[in-house]
Design a protein that fits this description.
The protein has 202 residues and is α+β, with helices and mostly antiparallel strands. The chain has one domain. Helices cover 31% and strands 37% of the residues. Strands 1, 2, 3, 4, 5, 6, 7 and 8 form an eight-stranded antiparallel beta sheet that branches. Strand 3 and strand 4 form a beta hairpin.
Length: 202
């Protein structure tokens, strides 16, 4: 048994709240050495295509609460644009990388720290995972990923023309996203749903 979401045009307040929570999640803890400034979400689009949930097990079903295990899949058109600054020369962590970067007009082979702005666009998300979903009228939505959901994400940045850096950034962002899905996204969804249910009960 499966069903589809009605995917609305999300409100400006939703985007503001989600952006604030994503900013906090992206800047907590340690970041890759190349990041020389805080990371900011400058554009957030939930896209026009909803995720799909396939029911695998229903553990609880009452008028006030639902708990079930689902298979979640997503292949929509959501995207996020991030802004930060990077310290370019630490990227030269391998001699072969230095050779490639040194041939790219020399900008990343500086002997002194070189801080440059960078934009990152994350798109073409492909997710597939088993999740535990609890929906409560009083407590909001709780979602926990039981398996790693990230199948694909396209990462485009200011440095796409330099292959070695593009590959490095892709790997780093994928790692950060996997950690976010495991630790931060469930908390963000829960807090956003609490604000939504609080507004509905007023």
């Amino acid at each position: 048994l499966s069903f589809h979401f009605h995917w609305p045009r999300f409100s400006d307040q939703f985007h503001a709240d989600a952006t604030q929570m994503l900013n906090a999640a992206l800047n907590k803890g340690s970041k890759p050495r190349i990041i020389a400034d805080k990371i900011e979400v400058v554009e957030l689009s939930m896209g026009t295509q909803p995720p799909e949930l396939e029911i695998r097990d229903i553990g609880e079903l009452t008028t006030d609460q639902f708990r079930g295990i689902f298979r979640l899949s997503y292949a929509g058109d959501a995207h996020i644009v991030l802004s930060t600054k990077v310290q370019a020369n630490p990227l030269n962590h391998k001699k072969s990388d230095m050779d490639v970067m040194g041939s790219s007009r020399g900008i990343l082979a500086a002997h002194q720290p070189l801080i440059v702005p960078m934009l990152l666009r994350l798109s073409n998300f492909r997710l597939n995972a088993y999740v535990v979903l609890v929906v409560s009228k009083q407590k909001g939505i709780t979602l926990v990923f039981k398996t790693d959901p990230l199948q694909n994400v396209d990462v485009n940045s200011t440095f796409d023309s330099i292959t070695v850096i593009q590959k490095f950034i892709q790997k780093e962002i994928e790692g950060q996203l996997r950690e976010m899905f495991r630790e931060d996204l469930p908390a963000i969804i829960h807090r956003l749903s609490q604000r939504w249910t609080a507004g509905k009960t007023k």
